Amino acid sequence: DTKQQALFIIFGGTGDLAKRKLYPSLFELYKKGFLRDNFAVIGTARRPWTDEYFQEVVREAVTAEHESEEDVANFAQHFYYQSHNVNDTEHYVTLRKLAQQLDQKYHIGGNRLFYLAMSPRFFGTIAKHLKSQHIVTDNGYNRLIIEKPFGHDLTSAKELNNAIGSYFTEKSVFRIDHYLGKEMIQNIAAVRFGNNLFRSLWNNRYIDNIQITLSEALGVEERAGYYETAGALRDMVQNHILQIVSLLTMNMPASYTESDIRREKLDALKALQVYTPEQVKNNFVRAQYTGTNELKGYRQEEKIADDSRTETFVAGKLFVNNENFAGVPIYIRTGKRLAKKTTRIDIVFKDIPKNIFGSAKLGKNILTIIVEPKGEIYLQMNVKQIGQDFGLQVQKMDLLQVKDNKVQIPEAYEKLILDALRGNATNFTHWEEVAYSWKFVDAIRSTWDQQQDSLAEYASGSMGPKVADDLLVRDGHKWVFTV
Ligand code: BG6
């Protein structure tokens, strides 16, 4: 199971994602021996690059001070470039020939991974041509890895899914949600189902509320074109946040396997309460960042319309109405240009029914899972204050601290690409999960589209608008994480 044989064909091979994430991840797999002699990569995109130039780009993408030059050079030799117009059938003929040639040269045995890292509007035509021009093989596996966004609402997602589904079975489609490849997100299942302590308490009898924060310090950067059509709700909630919600609220799977986990995650997403327009108004807020002396406001960013109404921040309260979580508010928030890059989950437990300590105030038990900036899990507890008198104090118990240089955490993409090579789709998103997520998101989006005045503002570098805090305050809660 360790050494893999595969030919990668990357559509969008000159793009940012390929350079920043895919090539470095493939290099890690190469250094660890998962990919060695029997693999090759064809990068395709419109630009007329040569193999030499492409290899140079790949070398640059993976070179770092501590890397051996020899490893880098040997790795880059497995890369080939094919200039390609996705609508031109002739180009697929050339691609097929190159693929056959490389398959023989590297003794790959027909295994192919088609990686679609470009605009989804081309996915259908690519899938079709891969099939009709026989780039899919008979003697190995053929898997399609797809980057987000998977549509921009349920209708377009269905169309996209049908277009792909005519040529590739659901089992061979791997929809990437890179959050599912993150070590600390995978820790949710370990903590929940590996400890009777938490397994027993993980329900509406003991949990008061759940808080999920995915905050970013960066602004829209160079992605104006995409972001203007997406906004924070589609960019982060439909995929990453709802996936996290499903992992937190699903019932215990019969086993830690792809099919059992999928079934439970899907059931959790089905139990998501889809809001009426009135409920959307009460439970979801959106906002856009404004400028400060140092930082530009969203509308002042390059290629953003100066009257843009795209939200760069979303906060909301949602409910998963299954047996264990009905009634537990799940507060979520995400946004760009916030105070800090943080990804964290706070599980706030209910107060003890009776405080026997008189006037001493008891702190809440809170289990915190921090995904970024570095992996941490801690539990907040009440303990005795050391000393002659009886007093209480709140202590944070460290359950896990991933120290920066002690263990190396594999990058999400590295883990997910290896999973795809092994045919393990546990940490990829199934079509039905995508569909239920869109259903939930569409209800919010369509209400907002008819409600021009619901866009608030927040200053760059803050933790979002006041309305996001009010969502909790009116329930008698507050965000555990503040800056
Ligand atoms: C992507 C979004 O899916 O996730 C980006 O499109 C966002 O807008 C990114 O910046 C955040 O990912 P991470 O791994 O940096 O938390």
From TrEMBL:
<dbReference type="GO" id="GO:0004345">
    <property type="term" value="F:glucose-6-phosphate dehydrogenase activity"/>
</dbReference>
<feature type="binding site">
    <location>
        <position position="178"/>
    </location>
    <ligand>
        <name>substrate</name>
    </ligand>
</feature>
<comment type="pathway">
    <text>Carbohydrate degradation; pentose phosphate pathway; D-ribulose 5-phosphate from D-glucose 6-phosphate (oxidative stage): step 1/3.</text>
</comment>
<feature type="binding site">
    <location>
        <position position="46"/>
    </location>
    <ligand>
        <name>NADP(+)</name>
    </ligand>
</feature>
<dbReference type="InterPro" id="IPR022674">
    <property type="entry name" value="G6P_DH_NAD-bd"/>
</dbReference>
<feature type="binding site">
    <location>
        <position position="182"/>
    </location>
    <ligand>
        <name>substrate</name>
    </ligand>
</feature>
<dbReference type="GO" id="GO:0050661">
    <property type="term" value="F:NADP binding"/>
</dbReference>
<feature type="binding site">
    <location>
        <position position="235"/>
    </location>
    <ligand>
        <name>substrate</name>
    </ligand>
</feature>
<keyword id="KW-0521">NADP</keyword>
<dbReference type="InterPro" id="IPR022675">
    <property type="entry name" value="G6P_DH_C"/>
</dbReference>
<comment type="function">
    <text>Catalyzes the oxidation of glucose 6-phosphate to 6-phosphogluconolactone.</text>
</comment>
<feature type="binding site">
    <location>
        <begin position="12"/>
        <end position="19"/>
    </location>
    <ligand>
        <name>NADP(+)</name>
    </ligand>
</feature>
<keyword id="KW-0560">Oxidoreductase</keyword>
<dbReference type="GO" id="GO:0005829">
    <property type="term" value="C:cytosol"/>
</dbReference>
<dbReference type="InterPro" id="IPR019796">
    <property type="entry name" value="G6P_DH_AS"/>
</dbReference>
<keyword id="KW-0313">Glucose metabolism</keyword>
<protein>
    <recommendedName>
        <fullName>Glucose-6-phosphate 1-dehydrogenase</fullName>
        <ecNumber>1.1.1.49</ecNumber>
    </recommendedName>
</protein>
<keyword id="KW-0119">Carbohydrate metabolism</keyword>
<feature type="binding site">
    <location>
        <position position="341"/>
    </location>
    <ligand>
        <name>substrate</name>
    </ligand>
</feature>
<feature type="domain" description="Glucose-6-phosphate dehydrogenase C-terminal">
    <location>
        <begin position="190"/>
        <end position="479"/>
    </location>
</feature>
<dbReference type="InterPro" id="IPR001282">
    <property type="entry name" value="G6P_DH"/>
</dbReference>
<feature type="binding site">
    <location>
        <position position="216"/>
    </location>
    <ligand>
        <name>substrate</name>
    </ligand>
</feature>
<feature type="binding site">
    <location>
        <position position="336"/>
    </location>
    <ligand>
        <name>substrate</name>
    </ligand>
</feature>
<feature type="active site" description="Proton acceptor">
    <location>
        <position position="240"/>
    </location>
</feature>
<feature type="domain" description="Glucose-6-phosphate dehydrogenase NAD-binding">
    <location>
        <begin position="9"/>
        <end position="187"/>
    </location>
</feature>
<dbReference type="GO" id="GO:0006006">
    <property type="term" value="P:glucose metabolic process"/>
</dbReference>
<feature type="binding site">
    <location>
        <position position="148"/>
    </location>
    <ligand>
        <name>NADP(+)</name>
    </ligand>
</feature>
<comment type="similarity">
    <text>Belongs to the glucose-6-phosphate dehydrogenase family.</text>
</comment>
<dbReference type="Pfam" id="PF00479">
    <property type="entry name" value="G6PD_N"/>
</dbReference>
<dbReference type="Pfam" id="PF02781">
    <property type="entry name" value="G6PD_C"/>
</dbReference>
<dbReference type="InterPro" id="IPR036291">
    <property type="entry name" value="NAD(P)-bd_dom_sf"/>
</dbReference>
<dbReference type="GO" id="GO:0009051">
    <property type="term" value="P:pentose-phosphate shunt, oxidative branch"/>
</dbReference>
